[in-house]
Design brief:
The complex is a heterodimer of chains A (221) and B (322).
Chain A (H helix, E strand, L loop, with lengths): L3 H25 L15 H16 L6 H23 L3 H7 L16 E9 L2 E7 L9 H4 L2 H12 L4 H16 L5 E9 L12 E10 L6
Chain B lengths: L1 H11 L3 E3 L1 H23 L3 H5 L19 H5 L4 H20 L3 H18 L6 H14 L9 H7 L8 E3 L1 H19 L14 H5 L17 H16 L3 H10 L6 H8 L2 H19 L5 H7 L7 H16 L1
Helix pairs in contact in B: 2-5, 5-6, 6-7, 7-9, 9-11, 14-15
Classes of the chains: A alpha+beta (221), B mainly alpha (322).
Chain lengths: 221, 322
Amino acid sequence: MSSPQSDRVPSLRAALLAVVIFVHGVAASPLPPSPTTPKAMANPIAVEELNGWVKVLGGLGIKTTRAELTDLAVKSSTVTSELRTAVIKPFRPLLRITGTGQGWGLFTYPNTHPHRLVIEVERDGKFEVVYRALDPEHAYLEPQLTFRRVRGVYDDNASKVRPSYESFARWVARHAFEDWPDATRVRVKMIRTHVVTPGQDADPIAETRLVRVVKRGEEGP
Amino acid sequence: MIGRLWRYWVALWSHQEPATAMAWVRLLLGLVLCWDLAEAWQLDLVSTLWAPPEAGGFPSNLLNRDPVPEVYRLFPPTEATAAGLHAVTFFASLAWALGLFTRVSGLVLILAYAQLAQILPLGDRGIDLMMRNVMFILLFSRCGDALSLDARRRTGSFFGDGALVSAWPRHLILLQIVVMYWMAGVQKTALTWTPLGGYHALYIILQDPHIARHSFEWLASVWPLTSLATATTHIWENTAPLMLVLMHFRMTDGQPGRLRAWAKRLRLMHLWVFVGVLLHLGIAATMQLGIFPWAMLALYPAWFHPDELGAAWAWVKARAGR
């Protein structure tokens, strides 16, 4: 015969798991963690996506504009993110200390405007390429630069620049100055291109962005 | 009605089984993290990734954040602290993988791993979150009762004594995997993930020099292949919730039903898992996502009941003995 206490354990466990699943279910749901902003909706990937939806909806007889869709996205994300925040708030300290949570937007919007990291070293007054992503001829520091945790730093900075991009540029410079004692400056930059789908005319655009030049002596510790 | 549902819910989380499947997840996941941390050390990236900028690291405004990561509240912001945190995480992961003081090493591991994430959020990817979620669940399990040094100490065998333990942690891990895949699928709302955009998503992703493992410009000439792979990925992720139905069929095997019999005959569950293995191997071959595919595959033993794993092991032993 089972004791009342042992009978209570499965019920308590089931109740606790119901709470856990509810909280994590809300966290995992596609509700945005923070409201979308008009600025975020103006980036080239979002613009291309919105234009596509305007066309698709137009084909279904629903006339709309990119501005209207942007407005809808901003308003709806404000409401839904507030709901999500309210449910998760009491559990935030536990989620933070354990590093747990939910958020599974993996390749949600394939990047049609990807960046290519390029590193150049100045010697005798001329810059020469020492690293270019996916270029086996210029593969300086490649194992480090393709390590997932390092890639996360510079790749995520390409879409939204943060102070860690400066730290990244100085770190590259420190290595380069050590390996090329005659180098005077190191230049880190991103080349943004436009990927078109098969059958479309190629877009030759190659925009140079996020240029950082580090002079010898400025690379820090 | 509510009473019946509640009894079903309680029974659902009250199953028992040997600890083998959870132990495999623990062993593989711990080793994958060890590999990742060892690679960071081998590439001389430990201080770069986790020391403050004053010591040459990437993390910015480390000491001005609200809140400051606990490790830098307790210890000075130096390279030595970063190296110490890395070492603690690595050895806790190794001990947890080997099942040495499993609960304690698991607790230390998750707290230290979370600190790494707090210090450099940009270096902490979705897969790290997934790994910590699973580690957290396993903290409440008896995953150290098999394939562990703890089991050897207690029972004399590394494999343990096969005693039954609560199965709910494995079921919760499966729910977590299903949620991850499903939400990844649901959120893929870009037109290029759909027929409206020609299923060109994977083609576009593979043109990203920071993601692709090689140059894939040549894919333009064989784009139907990438479209097929895109469609397969999208359908596969969005059908993840069906795995819960198939698991219910398996847990209640023997009951009548045409759909149930059809799913069993076609081995739908195994088929879905097999497609998942292929997708992750495809990712490993074409993209530079580090441990992502391997950590996901490390979770796959959870798809199987320990009896199935036991049967597979017996089959392998019999084949090897011939």
